[in-house]
Amino acid sequence: MRERIARFMAGRNGNDRLNLFLLVIGIVFIILGIIFKNKAAGIFNILTLAVLVIVYIRMFSRNLGRRQVENAKYMEIRERIVSKFRLFREEWTQRNEYKFFHCPSCRTALRVPRGRGKIMIVCKKCGTRFEGRS
Fold first, then answer.
1. What pLDDT digit, counting tens, does each position of 4-21 carry?
2. How far apart are CA 98 and CA 103, in angstroms?
3. What is the pTM of this model?
4. Fewer CB near the last or first residue (10 Å), C or N of the chain?
């Protein structure tokens, strides 16, 4: 049986990170449908069905190039969001020793030691100079 499934899935997309994310969204819609027992439950059930149909279409698709482009775009967006949270966590843990500034031109996060008074800050990425109080 396992070999038959493997032969069937040969040349198909299978599961990727975007499909796993969509499955989690489907589970969230199922839970929301259970919580709301009025007309909203029907809407959540329809959304769950739509998400699951998209997951299965992507999973069994033979158009691997297009599915890889979709997954790459999802991963790029996900990395942008995760990196902002990672930067926030880093700034939070180092807030006692360092003060953080963002470059006015390129928005790069810059870290300077606290307690130095008014200093000239130079962006390492673009070279912009600006003044800040540490």
1. 877 777 777 878 899 999
2. 16
3. 0.68
4. N
d(CA 55, CA 18): 9
Ranges of each domain in the chain: 1-93, 95-134
Provide the residue type at 6 as one letter. Answer: A
Q: Which of 4-8, 68-72, 119-123 has the least mean pLDDT?
A: 4-8
Quick one: which of 125, 21, 26, 9 has its CA closest to 60? 9
Copy the structure tokens of residue 17. Answer: 């990170």
Return d(Cα 16, Cα 67) in angstroms, integer.
Answer: 9
